[in-house]
Amino acid sequence: AQKITQTQPGMFVQEKEAVTLDCTYDTSDPSYGLFWYKQPSSGEMIFLIYQGSYDQQNATEGRYSLNFQKARKSANLVISASQLGDSAMYFCAMREGPSIFGQGTELSVKP
Amino acid sequence: DGGITQSPKYLFRKEGQNVTLSCEQNLNHDAMYWYRQDPGQGLRLIYYSQIVNDFQKGDIAEGYSVSREKKESFPLTVTSAQKNPTAFYLCASSADRVSYGYTFGSGTRLTVV
Q: In the predicted model, is pLDDT for residue B1 greater than 70?
């Protein structure tokens, strides 16, 4: 059965520093997609980054990068040079059919 | 601009009432989804549809119903059979491929009064 796990309920990071949000997954399907979404206090979910299961290189989108370790079934999100506006909930998701989501990590950026 | 619109933003339901949440998209996406989010938790799938006139139950479909009569629209009805409907409801759409992320609506916060 598919499963996705985020073990950090909350994280703090100093402004301008980098932070890593953890995500592990479990699936027996060789073809899947891994995603990260940001949910600000307004509630809307914002797509950040995508990694395909067959991709050889780690995905990057601006200050976001995805540290994909297929053998360990992990897909950690790295945010470089944190900004105050990065404070939000972050969700990891996996898609084979409809997406399943982790429990989320609440990130707080300190000035 | 293309996007996905949910309405209303806030909804109050009395005991025993059915209420319908609206979700409309103009992105030409084949697939549409309804998720429920409870405080401090992730998203749980209620229903999804990959094509007009067809939909499938998700993990927590009991007490909910949907229709997909048009590609653009995927309304969710919360029936009186749903005993604990207070939650945040998110609608999403996507191309029906594992490599595509979702576009989400802004959500509907439903409260039982």
A: no
Chain B interface disruption, residue of A23, A99, A103, A105, most B CBs within 10 A: A99
Q: What is the 3-state secondary structure (H, E, C) of B76-105?
A: EEECCCCCCCCEEEEEEEECCCCCCCCEEC
In the block, tokens 């399943």 appear at A100
Buried-state track A32-71, b at ≥16 Cβ within 10 A, e below 16: bbbbbbbbeeebbbebbbbbebeeeeebeeeebbbbbeee
Give CA B50 to chain center in angstroms: 14
- Nearest residue in chain B measured CA to CA from A38: B104
**Chain A residue closest to B93 (CA)?**
A98
Residues of A in contact with B39 (CB under 8 A): none
Could you report the per-residue pLDDT of B59-98, keeping only the tens digit for each?
A: 999 999 999 999 999 999 999 888 899 999 999 999 888 8
Binding-face residues of A in 27-86 toward B, CB within 8 A: 31-33, 35, 37, 42-47, 50, 52
